[in-house]
Specification:
The chain is of the alpha+beta class and about 90 residues long. The protein has one helix spanning about 65-90, and strands at about 10, 15-25, 40-50, 55. The strands form 2 sheets. Strands 1-4 form a two-stranded antiparallel sheet. The protein has a two-stranded antiparallel sheet with strand order 2-3.
């Protein structure tokens, strides 16, 4: 249960995924020689983190007009979502 005021955003922690990738490369044959093989090979390790966060914004609907206004505001936000990042890049 979460208690929030009308219009305040509540963040819920979500799923987190960590993936580690190791890539090895080197000179064939020479990289496998004990003791000196490390001079002929390289290892690259990549770590990637992904997280899903859920944001909730409760809205109290008191009338049909409030409902229609809220839906229109949500539409406007979704339509301008992609445009906002492009406009910020040109500034």
């Amino acid at each position: 249960m979460v208690r929030a005021q009308d219009g305040n955003i509540v963040a819920l922690g979500g799923l987190m995924q960590v993936s580690v990738t190791t890539q090895k490369s080197g000179v064939p044959g020479l990289q496998d020689i004990p003791l000196v093989g490390a001079l002929f090979r390289s290892t690259q390790r990549t770590t990637q983190k992904k997280e899903l966060v859920i944001l909730l914004k409760p809205t109290v609907i008191k009338s049909d007009k409030d409902w229609e206004d809220d839906i229109q505001q949500a539409r406007d936000r979704l339509q301008s979502y992609g445009q906002g990042s492009a406009a910020g890049a040109t500034r």
